[in-house]
Amino acid sequence: TQSTWGGFRATFSMSDDEADTSRANKPPRPPKTLAEKQNQKRVIVVLDKANLEIAKVGKKYVLLNCDDHHTIISKNKKDPAEYRPDITHQMLMQLLDSPLNKSGHMQVYIHTVKGVLIDINPQIRIPRTFQRFCGLMVQLLFKLSIHSANGSEKLMKVIKNPVTDHLPVGCRKIGTSFQGRLVNLDEYVKTQPQDQPICYVFGAIAHGNIETDFIEESISFSQYPLSGAVAVGRLTNAYERLWNIL
Known about the structure:
By secondary structure, the protein is α/β, with parallel strands linked by helices.
């Protein structure tokens, strides 16, 4: 993995148990076959422009964030306000803790500002604390994958771009933005395909808009600006009501 502070290699001893990658008692089984990926109804969420950048600070490698690394970010003529991995952490917890995900109706991808594409297994339990989340992401960006405690399954992995290669053929791709067309989300989801996957793209950023060339339309969930975690929570709640997931 390369960062703006130079290339590097390292080996980490952090265990998957330390990274809090335990699984639920009845975890959802992600679609495996081509037919399941193409036809199983589910919501695919892409968290775009996630700022997950690692650098060596002192004697260790860290996930850069605006609170702890303001000085080093500023010295490299970057805007510290853009370094907000906590937004990705909050959005992931909201998505993966949802009944929609726990019932097996969700898939999440992360696309970083550096162009790294990450596939998130629905079975992973994201660390509750930001510090442990940072450690997990550093481990992922070095090793390119995170395995379950028994090593039998990859819970996070870096995959090849573009994300559209991993989306089902013909699935709807919808962007989300405060500047998008304002919709009543409960009514909107009723108008979308119910028997096949659908993709929503969210910006994992503090402010601004995402720009992707594959979305078919851009919508807004509220007349007020929403945090990323609140926005994805609204989406999961809408589909839980639509599909009667309690």
